[in-house]
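HUMAN: You are asked to prepare a plain-text protein record giving the amino acid sequence and the backbone structure tokens, both parts labelled.

ASSISTANT:
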Amino acid sequence: MARRKKIYEGKAKILYEGPEPGTLVQYFKDDATAFNAEKRDVIDGKGVLNNRLSEFFMTGLNTIGVPTHFIRRLNMREQLVRAVEIIPLEVVVRNVAAGSISKRLGIEEGTPMPRPIVEFYFKDDDLGDPIVSEEHIIAFQWATQQDLDDMIALALRVNDFMSGCMLSVGIQLVDFKIEVGRIFEGDYQRLVVADEISPDSCRLWDVKTGQKLDKDVFRRDLGNLADAYTEVARRLGVLPQTATPMTKPTLIN
């Protein structure tokens, strides 16, 4: 196998040069991190599950007309994506109070939001990805007002799609984060959903029991993370319905 050029390595993924201009190969690692990488572990099979689940969600978004960087899955751990210019912001949509918003505002975890709330966080690990306002974003030229309007519209459409997907299999979408990238086509700029959508970037609770099926299992030492992600994949049909949680899953092609 020819040695590939590594473009970037993050906490959960590696980006390699793609086979064609304007493409990248996104590789999903088994690494799990929390609290700005202060807590770390390697979870066998996590990267395989996140690759397949992200493919499921990105394909669904593309189908309903929400543009993403996803092109196709290449194998169990890799997918082909479009190269984009990432806007240095995490876009978070909250449907139910949990995590940092409960701590910041003293809202009891599990309290429904009056409407989906969109927040922006500046992507900087050294600073702990601080929450920022639209004024900060425009003043420091991280994005334009039009970009912000488009990002909010994208995030809310993702929320509608994801909420419906999850509710149909008995899972509540508590919150999630996405990253957004710019694609340039001549003089025309288009914003697309980038990075990944997986249980790593969502909070997912069982509708009936409140059981956590996301990275909070790892953050709060609530059990086996691979089992939780396997359960999400099984319910969504990514795994056979007869499958039992397993550390190294066999996925449907």
In short: Confidence is low (pLDDT under 50) at residues 245-250.
